[in-house]
Amino acid sequence: MKNKIIRKFIPNQPVSAGWVLMLDIIIVFIATFIALLSRMNFRNPATFYTSQMITIFATVLSVRVILFFTFRTYTSLLRYTSTKDVLKLFYVNLLGTVIIAIANIICSICIHRYIVPFSIVGLEFIITTFLQIFYRLFVQAIYSDKNKQLKIRKNILIYGAGELGLITLNSLNRDNTHKYSVTGFVDDDPKKIGKTMEQLPIYSVETLNEIFDSKNIAFMVIAIEKLSSAKRAVMADLCMEHNVKILMVPPIERWINGELSFKQIKKIRIEDLLGRDPIQMSNSHVQKDLIDKTILITGAAGSIGSEIVRQIIKYNVKQLVLVDNAESPMYFLELELLNSHTDNPYITYIGDICQKNYMEHIFSTYHPDIVYHAAASKHVPLMEKNPYQAVKVNIAGTKNLADLSIKYHVQKFIMISTDKAVNPTSVMGASKRIAEIYVQSLGKAHPQCKFITTRFGNVLGSNGSLIPILKQQIEQGGPVTITHPEVTRFFMTIPEACELVLQAGCMGDGGEIYIFDMGKSIKIYDLAKKMISLSGLELGKDIQIVFTGLRPGEKLYEELLANEENTTSTQYDKIRIAKVRTYDFDTICQKTDLLIASLDHADDMELVKQMKQLVPEFKSQNSKYMCIDEENQ
User: Fold this and answer.
1) What HEC string does 306-339 produce?
2) Which of 97-111, 190-204, 209-223, 308-322 has the highest mean pLDDT?
3) Phi and psi of 582, rounded to 5°?
4) Where are the alpha helices (DSSP H) in 83-186?
5) Whole-angstrom distance, CA of residue 147 vs CA of residue 176
6) Which long-range contacts (CB under 8 A, 24 or more apart) does 612-618 make?
7) 256: which DSSP letter?
8) Dihedral sign of CA atoms 462, 466, 472, 475 in order
9) Of 193-197, 305-309, 364-368, which one has max mean pLDDT?
C-alpha cells in the first residue's frame, strides 16, 4: 500500500540536473554540520569560534562543489543510476577528502593549525557519500518498481553466467522501455549450477525443458562470447521447440563506445546457426605471398569478389586492380573503400572479361602478379536456359584471362569454381568444369604461372543465393517455395570462402583443385522451417511451404568430389586437394576454341552437345538436354 502511495507521487519526467546538484550541496552542508556536532560530542557548536566554523563550511563546500562541477556527477539520470555512477561519486568524494587533507597538512606547516579538523574530514566524507548514494539508489529502485508494476514483463533467460552475462543483465535492467524481466541464468559450468548471480539463480542446461515450461520463458539471450557454432545451433533448436525467441549479444568490438545497450541485442540469424567455427589459418603466409604485389580481381563487386577485396586490402599490396561489369555494386564497393580510409592504392574498372582487347589493356597497363578470378555466371536455372551466356562468360571469359596471364607473366592465377562442377548435371556446372580443365591443362603446359582452383558449396548471404530468397518470401507472408522435400546443400560463410581462396593462393604449386570440408549437408526443408520459426511465425498457420519440383539442371544432392577423384591432405585439416585426371593441353585448347567459335552460329542444343563431348560425365537432369544423353547411349 505504501509503495502504491509513493509511486502515485513520483513524476514521470526526469529530475533536472540542477535539482540533483542542489540536493548534493544540501547533503554536504548537513554532513558537515553532523560531523561538526559529533566533533563537539553533540554540544553547542557555538563553542567553536564563528570564523572557524565559517572556514570549515566554506572549505568543505567549495571543494565539493568544484569537484561536482568538474566531474559532472549531477548529470546522470537518477532513475537509471548504475554501479558506474555510484563508483564515480565515491571516487569524486574521496578525491575531495584527499584535497582537504592535503590542504590541512600544508596549513599545519604554514600557520600551525588545521583549517578542518581531521575527525570532521573523515566523518563528513562517510556521511556525504552514504547519503548521496542512498538517495540515488532509492530513486532508482522506486522507478524500477514503478515500471515493473506498470508493464506486463516477459520472462527472459540469459545463457552465460559470466562477465558478459552480467553486462547483459545490467543492460536489460537499465532499459525500462522494454517489457523484459530477467528470471535467471543458464550455464554449462557445473561449478556455477545452483548458485546465484545478482540474486538470480543459475540453472543447468539439462533442466532447460522444465524451466521453459515452469517459468513461462519468452526469450533467451546468448551471452557467451566464443560459443561454438554446434552448441549455438543446439540451443536454438531447443528454444524453437518451446517457442522461445532467441537473441544474441553482438561481439564486443561492435558495442557503441565500448558499452552494450539493449538495442544492440539482436535476433539470432539463420547464418549464425549454419556457420561453423572458424578455421585457424596462418595469415602470415598470406601476407608474405601478397606483400608488394599487383593484384587483379575479377568479379570484384560480387559477394565473393568484394570480400576478397576486403581481406586483401588489409595487407601491404602494391596495387589492387578491381574489375566488374556491374556498375552499381562497383560504385558501392568504391564508397566502402573510401570510408575505410585504406592507404593501399586501388583502381576500379567497369568491364567485361569476355572483351579480350579491353582486358589486355588492363593487363598491359598493370602487369598483375596475381589474378583472383571470381567473375562468373552462376545461376543454374538461368544458365540452363542460356547456354550461350554460360559458355561466353564461364569458358571464353576464363580462357581470355588465363591466356593473358601467360602472356603477361602472371605468377599465380586463382580460379573460383563450384561444387556443381563435380559430375555436372547442369549447363552452369559443366561450363565451370570445362574452365577448370582448361586452366589446369594450360598450367601444365606453362608451369611458370601457377593455376590454382578452389571449389565451394553454397555461400551464405551471397547475391541471389537461397537464404536471401527465403527471407524475402517469409517477409512477404509466403508461400515459401522449395524444389523438393529431400533436397540438400552444403553451406559456408562468405569470409570463410574467401579465406580459403587466399590460403589456396599461397599454398598452391599449380594445378591443384582445393576443396573444403563443409561438414554435413543441410536439408533445405529443415532450413526453411528454422527460418520461419526465427521470424516468429508458425508453419502451417501463418505461412506455408510449397514444393515446386527440381528445376532444370538442379541436383537433389551436391557433391564436392567426382567419383574418380580422391584427395590428399594439406597442413589444414579441413582443406584437401582433389586429385583429378590430367588432359593434353593441345587437345583441350582445340576443343575449347571450337566451342567458343560455335557461339557465333550454333543453337543451344548444339552448344550443350559440344560441352558434353568435352565433359563426358555431364549428364543433364530435369532438362531438355537429357535427349542428348539418350542419343549417346
Assistant:
1) HHHHHHHCCCCCCEEEEEECCHHHHHHHHHHHHH
2) 308-322
3) -95, 160
4) 83-110, 118-150, 163-174
5) 7
6) 612/430, 614/430, 614/434, 614/437, 614/588, 615/424, 615/430, 615/433, 615/434, 615/437, 617/423, 617/424, 617/562, 618/424, 618/425, 618/429, 618/430, 618/433
7) B
8) negative
9) 364-368
CATH 3.40.30.10 correct for 283-457+492-518+551-626? no
Burial class (CB in 10 A: 0-12, 13-18, 19+), 231: middle
CATH code assigned to 151-268 = 3.40.50.720
**What count of other Cβ atoms lies within 10 Å of the Cβ of residue 533?**
20
Q: Which residue has the higher pLDDT, 9 or 406?
A: 406
Query: 50-71 vs 83-110: helix axis angle to the nearest 10?
Result: 140
Spatial CA neighbour of 312 closest among 322, 302, 325: 322
| CA–CA distance, 499 with 387 (Å, rounded to integer) | 31
In three-state secondary structure terms, 413 is: strand
Q: SS3 for 251?
A: coil
Q: In terms of Cα–Cα distance, which of 333, 424, 412, 344 is closest to 387?
A: 424
Q: What are phi and psi of 49, to 5 degrees?
A: -65, 145
Whole-angstrom distance, CA of residue 270 vs CA of residue 232: 11
Which one has a higher pLDDT value, 55 or 567? Answer: 55
Give 588: exposed, middle or buried? Use CB within 10 Å, 0-12, 13-18, 19+. buried
CA angle 585, 589, 592 (to 5 degrees): 140
Cα distances (Å, whole numbers) of residue 525 to 217, 461, 486, 488 = 27, 18, 7, 8
Sequence-distant (6+) residues with CB within 8 A of 432 are 376, 394, 417, 418, 420, 421, 424
200 versus 631: which is more confidently predicted?
A: 200
| pLDDT single digits (tens) 283-302 | 777 888 888 899 999 999 98
For strand 245-248 and strand 266-267, is the pairing parallel, antiparallel, or unpaired? antiparallel
Q: Which three cell numbers stand for residue 586?
A: 593441345
Grouping H, G, I as helix, E, B as strand and the rest as coil, residue 491 is strand
Tell me if 151-268 shares its fold with 283-457+492-518+551-626: yes
DSSP code for 571: S
360-399 burial code (b ≥16 CB/10 A, e <16): eebbeebebbbbbbbbbbbbbbbbbbbbbbbbbbbbbbbb
Positive or negative, the CA dihedral 610, 426, 378, 493 is negative
**What is the pLDDT of the chain when averaged over all its residues?**
81
CB count in 10 Å sphere of residue 9: 6
In the chain, domain spans: 2-148, 151-268, 283-457+492-518+551-626
Q: What span, in angstroms and rounded, lies between the C-alpha atoms of 345 and 341?
A: 11
